[in-house]
User: Which sequence fits this backbone?
């Protein structure tokens, strides 16, 4: 849900509190500049790869004509990357989860300071706990061989069919 960025209550509540840093958003950038508070942003999604979630782009994609293809191509290759670059360059610090994402932003013309902050789990989260594992397996799969769990969105780009196909082979 998108907040009403023109709601004066946002700034009233903001000024009633004391912030050291603000994380992301156009209103965050406005308030950060106005009150001299650093604004940080976490860039973890290549937005141009998710246009299919927006109805107008989904419709253009399904049309399959030259005009639709040109609009999609322009949006993916120029418009979205330029908007991201513009947004990133108005931040004091940007976090990316990987060196690849950082490189993409730099290649796109990002000039803000960029640091890598991995969002994955530490290795110890994968340590086997035999008793808990056995209980989970007994509860959910009994004598079957595989148990697959995901906490991701069930969407095309997660490529879950690839994992399921791999388990079935």
Assistant:
């Amino acid at each position: 849900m998108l907040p009403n960025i023109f709601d004066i209550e946002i700034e009233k509540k903001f000024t009633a509190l004391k912030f050291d840093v603000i994380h992301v958003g156009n209103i965050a950038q406005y308030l950060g500049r106005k009150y001299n508070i650093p604004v940080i942003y976490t860039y973890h999604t290549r937005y141009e790869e998710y246009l299919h979630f927006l109805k107008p782009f989904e419709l253009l994609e399904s049309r399959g004509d030259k005009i639709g293809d040109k609009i999609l191509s322009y949006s993916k290759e120029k418009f979205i990357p330029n908007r991201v670059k513009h947004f990133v360059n108005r931040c004091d610090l940007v976090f990316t989860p990987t060196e690849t994402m950082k490189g993409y932003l730099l290649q796109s013309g990002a000039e803000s300071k960029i640091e890598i902050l991995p969002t994955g789990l530490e290795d110890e989260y994968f340590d086997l706990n035999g008793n808990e594992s056995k209980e989970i397996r007994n509860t959910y799969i009994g004598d079957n061989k595989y148990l697959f769990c995901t906490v991701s969105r069930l969407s095309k780009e997660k490529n879950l069919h690839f994992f399921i196909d791999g388990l079935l082979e």
